[in-house]
Design brief:
Helices cover 56% and strands 10% of the residues. It is built from twelve helices and seven strands. A five-stranded parallel sheet has the order 1-7-6-2-3, with helices on both faces. 34% of the residues are buried.
């Protein structure tokens, strides 16, 4: 029970350990497979992890059926589960066989897939329209809005009081810079848009970024669209504010495991930490972090590791 960070280098068996932990929870503790929440960061990885855990359940059940209690076995997990009475070993086998049959009730998915499930479960009472269309990549919308905002600003230039000659217009930022700033803010709703200093150029950039962000939000609302980042931020907000929802999910998912957790961003980490009340395992290796471009922050995992290793 409690919280634990599992860290090791590539190829040393982190995913093997995660699958073994899931097997032990089912076989030894009798945790129903539907109470497992296993999260990773790509659909392909989730599909592979799902198959590895299911295969682990099935192969371990076969080994427990074929071998007598106390038998030696080269697999340390099987050897451990054989270390009991005949009745205990038989019950462990039955639990694993039941878990294979009920495996579709396990939640082994991406963090975005889990958030989508949470929001869908809220129905019409939730923060999103259940009929909302998922916009996987809002780049086209952002680029279109940036172009509109820059054209408007060019047609109505803002004078620069410090320019020479006085009153010359303030130079506009490039579309790439404005788009990059808008994407950062859209991905991190808590960020306040302020000028870095009192220069008119920076103030103009901040103002134009605010316009882009507002219009992108308006366009998504009008078209019934929702982004992955919207899902994450709203679920984090729901869990923070709704104690009943936290208790419900903590009861539903008594074991929470996060694979490749070195790629967790701060919003994802907040969701995970609010959920893992009974048992939380973070499995990762900061040296393998590959999603910094999506705001993945290895320090999130490193800090957790320092506290719970």
């Amino acid at each position: 029970r409690g919280r634990l960070a599992v860290g090791a280098s590539a190829g040393t068996g982190k995913t093997w350990t995660l699958a073994a932990l899931a097997t032990r929870y089912v076989a030894e503790r009798g945790v129903p497979v539907g109470e497992l929440l296993v999260v990773t960061f790509t659909r392909a990885a989730a599909a592979e992890l799902r198959e590895r855990i299911r295969t682990r359940f099935a192969s371990t059940a076969r080994d427990l059926e074929a071998l007598a209690p106390g038998s030696e076995h080269p697999d340390p997990l099987v050897a451990h589960l054989l270390g009991g009475t005949a009745d205990e070993c038989a019950e462990r086998r039955r639990r694993l066989e039941r878990a294979v049959v009920d495996f579709d009730t396990a939640t082994i998915t991406t963090i975005h897939g889990f958030c989508a499930q949470v929001l869908a479960a809220q129905g019409n009472t939730g923060p999103f329209d259940p009929a909302a269309v998922l916009v996987q990549d809002p780049s086209e919308i952002v680029d279109s809005v940036v172009a509109d905002v820059l054209v408007e600003a060019a047609l109505d230039p803002t004078p620069d009081p410090d320019s020479d000659p006085p009153g010359a217009s303030i130079p506009l930022p490039s579309s790439s810079r404005l788009g990059a700033l808008a994407r950062i803010v859209l991905s991190n709703p808590g960020i306040r848009i302020v000028a870095s200093n009192a220069k008119p150029t920076d103030e103009l950039v901040a103002e134009l970024t605010r316009r882009v962000v507002e219009r992108v939000d308006e366009r998504l609302l009008l078209t019934g669209g929702v982004t992955f980042d919207d899902q994450l931020s709203r679920v984090a907000e729901l869990l923070e504010q709704d104690a009943d929802l936290r208790r419900t999910l903590s009861t539903q998912f008594t074991v929470v495991m996060i694979d490749e957790s070195q790629d967790t961003d701060p919003v994802q980490a907040e969701i995970v930490h609010l959920l893992g009340e009974h048992g939380l395992y973070l499995v990762g290796d900061p040296k393998q972090a590959i999603y910094r471009f999506r705001r993945g922050d290895p320090l999130v995992y490193t800090k957790f590791q320092e506290q719970h290793q």
